């Protein structure tokens, strides 16, 4: 059973398009995150949600809009994609906001042409 | 602000012991975590130190000195499969966010 899953695994698209990435966790965790990992492998938090509520919005352009329909799902919609958005996007979850252990999904490799 | 420093690359031979250091500067501090990431894979949690001292989990150990704002990950009996990137991370006490270091790429040679 996959603990944290993301779809799609790969995404190749043109500049200016809108795309979504979906994330689901079956661990019963309260807290979910989106991270961006660039080509130098630098891992940076974008958003975190706790029980469907936005907790962290880390100065991400408003072209990025997360949505949490329930605490097991956290989706990421990106409008007007730019070349600089090319990266690997990881979803993660933790039991709650205070727990340090985070479980990462397999990642979505986004390439904007 | 928050910052973490760790070496960019370390090379060691199979069977050896390697230590990956991490120094941090934070406005508040809960603890230091370590994650492993293989090429093309996802980060995987390895260990967490909230208190000073050494925590051992199998071949991997992690150490923390809060007074020195320093920690390390110790990998013993290195295996080829340990070749990966290792990230230290700290929790931002104000915002419940985790700040990751830039990662240390470990190469294990035969």
Describe, in plain words, how this protein is organized in 3D.
The complex is a heterodimer of chains A (113) and B (110). Chain A is mainly β. In chain A, 0% of the residues lie in helices and 56% in strands. Chain A has no helices and 11 strands. The model of chain A has no long low-confidence stretch (mean pLDDT 94). Chain B is mainly beta and 110 residues long. Chain B is 0% helix and 58% strand. The radius of gyration of chain B is 13 Å and the shape is globular. The N and C termini of chain B lie far apart (41 Å). The relative contact order of chain B is 0.35. The model of chain B has no long low-confidence stretch (mean pLDDT 93). At the A-B interface, strand 5 and strand 10 of A face strand 5, strand 9 and strand 10 of B.
How much of the sequence of chain B is in beta strands?
over 45%
Query: Which H/E pattern describes the elements of chain A?
Result: EEEEEEEEEEE
Number of helices of chain B: 0
Rg of chain B, alpha carbons: 13 Å
What is the chains' assembly state? heterodimer
Separation, N- and C-terminal Cα atoms of chain A = 34 Å
Mean pLDDT across all amino acids of chain B: 93
Number of strands of chain B: 11
Instruction: Give unreliable regions of chain A as ranges.
Output: none
- Which class do the helix and strand fractions of chain A yield? mainly beta
Count of DSSP strands of chain A: 11
What's the overall geometry of chain A?
A: globular
**Weakly predicted, low-confidence segments of chain B:** none
Assign an overall shape of chain B: globular
Provide the helix percentage of chain B: under 10%
| Greatest interface by residues involved | A-B, 22 and 21 residues
Mean pLDDT of chain A: 94
Can you summarize the main beta sheet of chain A? 7 strands, mixed
Helicity range of chain A: under 10%
